[in-house]
């Protein structure tokens, strides 16, 4: 399973710098067969400190973290939806990703031009979001023409599609993102195929300088999903060891004790509605990605395509309980290692062994 995050924003806001910082720590992509080899696509491991602890417990020969893809989508500009600045190509790139990381410029630097010649995160954000909304209006209108015809002939599915499209249309024309539209379960399923840009989860990054005085409450207060990240600084730190980087980080005005990049990756993982279960043994300790609320058979399919169909049962224990037990044998004795069936909803941090 592959999950991709597209980095978007105006030119010169720090997209490529962020991309470079994220992809600095090379990972062995042979473990991730879904990967596309493309200079704008980077595979980034999801930080997870449970892996090392479990690997020590199992004396595993190797650790395989789980990963998500980041795509550096070149600068969008005003009127991209009309094809301005290769706009259509970039919009198509955004259509292919599962979520958007939207960078706005919060740093002053006289040497680096801002497209609008002023630092204004709110303006940056609105310029890009307007392009995405306009592109979505076009998509919805095209789709409506076709769907209205089919709905008139009484086609049930078309009638549902039409009502969803109309909901989107009215929100978008009100300058609201498609992801603000409330849909019931059937409508949600129907909406999957529309591929609207603004229906994807969005995380905003305010790119600031590490020593800049910023009033966090005043910058984009209406936006919940945002982080302040000194992108260039993080890129420089990514060359250092964890401990060294922490020392530098402490001296900044941002008072962060975890890597801003790690914070970003974990936040994306969460917004993508993903969670991790683990497998561990002598060969390897490994993290696997599944959608939250996956059943045990669905989770199994992350490991192998036919695990879902052939699923019989699973042995499950929370990773911390396994470590606390000291050994598999003790975990069985204490009853913390359970047998679960088809209906079991896998929890983040479960160590799972599938019986097929
Ligand atoms: N001072 C400062 N410069 C930055 C920061 N982030 C990026 N830059 C610089 O801004 C310029 C444009 O960055 P780049 O990542 O190529 O922007 P993109 O067009 O959005 O991909 C480069 O010279 C970067 O070194 C930052 O946080 N602070
Ligand atoms: Mg760039």
Helical content class: 25-40%
CATH topology of the domain at 293-355: Ubiquitin-like (UB roll)
- List the helices and strands in order: EHEHEEHEHHHEEHHHEEHHEHHEE
Q: Could you tell me the mean pLDDT?
A: 88
Unreliable stretches: none
Strand line-up of the largest beta sheet: 2-4-1-5-6-7
How many helices?
Answer: 13
What binds here, in terms of ligands, is: guanosine-5'-diphosphate, magnesium ion
Strand share of the residues? 15-25%
CATH homologous superfamily (4th level) name of the domain at 293-355: Beta-grasp domain
| Shape field | flat
| CATH class categorisation of the domain at 293-355 | Alpha Beta
Structural class: alpha/beta
At CATH level 2, the architecture of the domain at 293-355 is Roll
Biggest β-sheet, characterized? 6 strands, mixed
What's the gyration radius in Å? 23 Å
Total strand count, please? 12
Can you walk through the features of this model?
- The strands form three sheets. The protein has a six-stranded mixed sheet with strand order 2-4-1-5-6-7, with helices on both faces. Strands 3-9-8 form a three-stranded mixed sheet, sandwiched between helices.
- The radius of gyration is 23 Å and the shape is flat.
- With 356 residues, it is of the alpha/beta class.
- It has a domain at 293-355: Ubiquitin-like (UB roll).
- It is built from 13 helices and twelve strands.
- The mean pLDDT is 88.
- It has helices at 15-22, 50-58, 87-96, 121-152, 156-173, 185-191, 231-237, 242-250, 260-271, 296-303, 307-310, 319-325, 328-334; strands spanning 4-8, 41-45, 62-64, 67-72, 99-105, 202-207, 226-229, 274-280, 284-291, 313-318, 338-340, 350-355.
- Bound molecules: guanosine-5'-diphosphate and magnesium ion.
- Residues 15-16, 74 line the site of magnesium ion.
């Amino acid at each position: 399973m592959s999950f991709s995050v597209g980095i978007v924003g105006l030119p010169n806001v720090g997209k490529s710098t962020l991309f470079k910082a994220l992809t600095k720590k090379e990972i062995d992509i042979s473990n991730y067969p879904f990967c596309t080899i493309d200079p704008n696509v980077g595979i980034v491991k999801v930080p997870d400190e449970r892996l090392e602890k479990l690997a020590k417990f199992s004396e595993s020969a190797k650790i395989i973290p789980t990963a998500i893809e980041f795509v550096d989508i070149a600068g969008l500009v005003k009127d991209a939806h009309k094809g301005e600045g290769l706009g259509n190509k970039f919009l198509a790139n955004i259509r292919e990703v599962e979520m958007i990381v939207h960078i706005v410029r919060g740093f002053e630097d006289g040497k680096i031009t801002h497209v609008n010649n002023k630092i204004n995160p709110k303006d940056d954000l609105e310029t890009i979001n307007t392009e995405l909304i306009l592109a979505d209006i076009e998509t919805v209108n095209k789709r409506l023409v076709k769907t209205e015809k089919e709905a008139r002939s009484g086609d049930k599915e078309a009638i549902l599609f039409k009502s969803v499209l109309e909901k989107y249309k009215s929100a978008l024309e009100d300058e609201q993102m498609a992801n603000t539209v409330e849909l019931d379960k059937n409508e949600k399923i129907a909406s999957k195929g529309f591929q609207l840009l603004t229906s994807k989860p969005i995380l905003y990054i305010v790119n600031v300088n590490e020593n800049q005085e910023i009033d966090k409450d005043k910058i984009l207060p209406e936006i919940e999903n945002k982080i302040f990240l000194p992108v260039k600084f993080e890129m420089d730190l990514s060359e250092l060891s964890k401990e060294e980087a922490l020392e530098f980080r402490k001296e900044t005005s941002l008072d962060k004790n975890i890597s801003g990049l790690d914070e970003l990756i974990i936040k994306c993982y969460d917004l993508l509605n993903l969670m991790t279960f683990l497998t561990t043994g002598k060969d390897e300790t490994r993290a696997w990605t599944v959608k939250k609320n996956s059943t045990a058979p669905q989770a199994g399919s992350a490991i192998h395509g036919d695990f879902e169909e052939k699923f019989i049962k699973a042995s499950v224990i929370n990773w911390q309980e396994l470590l606390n037990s000291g050994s598999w044998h003790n975990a069985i004795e204490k009853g913390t290692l359970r047998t679960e069936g088809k209906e079991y909803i896998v929890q983040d941090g479960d160590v799972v062994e599938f019986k097929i």
